[in-house]
Amino acid sequence: MPLSRVSSPSSSHADRIVVCASLVLLFAMGVRATFGLFMQPMGLVHGWGRDVFSLAFAIQNLVWGVAAILMGSVADKWGSGRTIVVSALLCALGLIGTRYAGSELMLYLCAGVLVGLGQAGTTFAVLLPVVARSVPPERRSAAMGIASAGGSMGQFVVVPAGQLLIDHFDWTGALWALSALMLLALPLATRLTGKPEHAAGAQSLGAAVRQAVGDGSYHFLFWSYAVCGFHTAFITLHLPAFVVDGGLKASNGALAIALIGLFNVFGSYWAGRMGGRHSKKHLLALLYATRSAAILLLIFLPLTPAVLYAFSALMGLVWLGTVPLTTALVGHIYGMRYAATLTGIVFFGHQIGSFVGVWLGGKLYVATGSYDVVWWLSVALGLAAAALCLPVRERALAPAGAA
Amino acid sequence: MNARPPGRRRRWRALPAYALLAAVLAVAFLGYLRPELVVGWDALMALCGF
Asked: Which helix (H) or strand (E) holds A81?
């Protein structure tokens, strides 16, 4: 299997790469997670409502999904270091542009398109293949788990830090500070350089994509990842309304989101660690089935703070654990040469699921007057995703189309 | 001479890092309970992408 230019990396070199990748993910995922904090202060100044911010965030998610394929192939072709540098600059530019956005169109362009492009090159599709190439195959999953936990930690710790920045420096100063945080990725990118080796006569990008698309396992991973996107997007957007409808207080909701974030850090790390010891497809199936079980808990038990917290903790444990496992499977089955591109395509499936989760959640709520149907649909989809993971062939394919 | 096996020594050396990590997580958790975040938790949850 073609590996990186670092064919036999020293342990400390690999450790440095894992730490740098974790930090870049921490900054990128953390900055993205603060978006909701700006809705109220920016909305007050510009007179923008929730619909404007929702559309900007939807654009950001779609651009992130589509551009992940582009940034993945750029990283495979021209190197991950350059990709991370350009993406971090785009993200910082998007944040500064958001600061000066005076119209809705500018907000969509800056917070939606530019930040989305920046996210695509500073998150999982580009970073995890770098981590995977830097360590021996038996440590790959655990290393990706650590890097993913870095992203989860960013989501968790940057949000209260962002609120503190808004309290002290107003939202304008906070956006400057967050763009400066993204620029910290620039020196780290110098440690995350390199691209997979491309031997003469080796498989082309087109042949690698055709091989993956022609393989059933790739489709199983694509659609199970789409279910992951459906769950996370539906829950983040619609849980607040569900909780308020159930008569709980804002403080209960705040604790719920804190628990999801906290347990997500441990869940991402645990999933990657376990992926190095056990079958990754079985672990993925377990994660999806656990999500269904957690949702069933919410359906059958009366909504009390304790039930909400138990749901949040359980859901947090299996929230982003799918990321290192799915990425590790793609790298393991189809090789590391085009891992960033192939991971980007699978991540696009995740974003399709996110879009459907947000849209269908609202549509079915309006049509039926409650979230019951969507919760049951989420249970069924979780079980379907678990079933989709089981037939995945967890063994390396010989590159097709190589000269 | 240190009689501890290398694995255990490494774990002890990593202890300050684990303690720092735990402290950061604890402070961040408390941050979610501040009134400013409690008030805006629904907007945050809807738009943060957790």
From this structure: helix A80-100
User: For A16-36, what is each residue's pLDDT tens digit?
Assistant: 999 999 999 999 999 999 988
Residues of B in contact with A34 (CB under 8 A): 48
Rounded to two decimals, the pTM is 0.90
Residue span of the structural domain in which A223 resides:
205-389
The domain tally of chain A equals: 2
Phi-psi domain of A194 (left: phi exceeds 0; alpha: psi -120 through 50; beta: other): left
Contacts of A251 in chain B (CB under 8 A): 33, 38
- Does the residue A194 lie in any domain? no
ipTM for this model: 0.84
CA–CA distance, A107 with A43 (Å, rounded to integer) = 11
Domain containing residue A314: CATH number = 1.20.1250.20
Alpha-carbon distance A246 to A370, whole Å?
A: 11
Instruction: Single out the residue of A133, A139, A121, A334 nearest to residue A222, CA to CA.
Output: A334
- Closest residue in chain A to residue B39, using alpha carbons only: A250
